[in-house]
Amino acid sequence: MNYALLIFWGLVVFFFSCTTSFFHLLTQGTLQFNLFHPDFSAFFELYPFSFSNTFLVIQKTGHSLSFLILAFLLHNCLRNVKNAMLFACLFGLLLELCQPFFGRDGRLIDVFVNGFGVAVYFFLYLLIQVREKYTYATEEQQEI
């Protein structure tokens, strides 16, 4: 079941990331694909970011959150947090490299946005581990 959920979530993230217009995909069933002329020219370009641009903030938060969930699902399947982080980050890079084939512009900065979600998962995981160790040590001392 864990692997099925992981595969499902990976496909959801892929379709959301590589679809030029998700609205057109849902309403018209069209998926634009550009096998022979992908445009990688924007990969190293930065885009103007402003917290006043609500759409961009929501979009990037969604990207980070989707990769946090992906890291969690990978960790559940692989049982190794380092490998889960590695595969989640590689998946984020792969998605950005695939986007020009779907009429979008993959960007290196978005690899870092995706990686931020993975890093937040890792931070939360470590926080829970430290808390559990502290709670366990406190309980042992109280028994003595």
Characterise this structure:
- InterPro entries: VanZ-like.
- Helix content is 72%, strand content 0%.
- The chain is elongated.
- It has 144 residues and is mainly α.
- It starts with a helix and ends with a helix.
Structure summary:
With 144 residues, the protein is an all-alpha fold.
Oligomer: single chain
Please state the structural category.
mainly alpha
> Biggest β-sheet, characterized?
none
Q: What's the end-to-end separation, in Å?
A: 42 Å
Mean pLDDT: 89
Q: Which regions are unreliable across 5 or more consecutive residues at pLDDT < 50?
A: none
Helix residue percentage: over 70%
Topology, number of strands: 0
In sequence order, what are the helices and strands, one letter per element? HHHHH
Number of helical segments with 4 or more residues: 5
Label the overall shape: elongated
Q: Using the CA coordinates, give the radius of gyration.
A: 19 Å
The figure for the number of domains is 1
Strand content: under 5%
Transmembrane segments: 7-26, 46-72, 84-102, 108-128
Organism: Halalkalibacter suaedae
Protein name: VanZ family protein
Domain VanZ-like: 4-128
SSE inventory with pairings:
Elements: H1 2-18, H2 22-28, H3 54-78, H4 81-98, H5 108-143
Protein name: VanZ family protein
Domain VanZ-like: 4-128
Keywords: Membrane, Transmembrane, Transmembrane helix
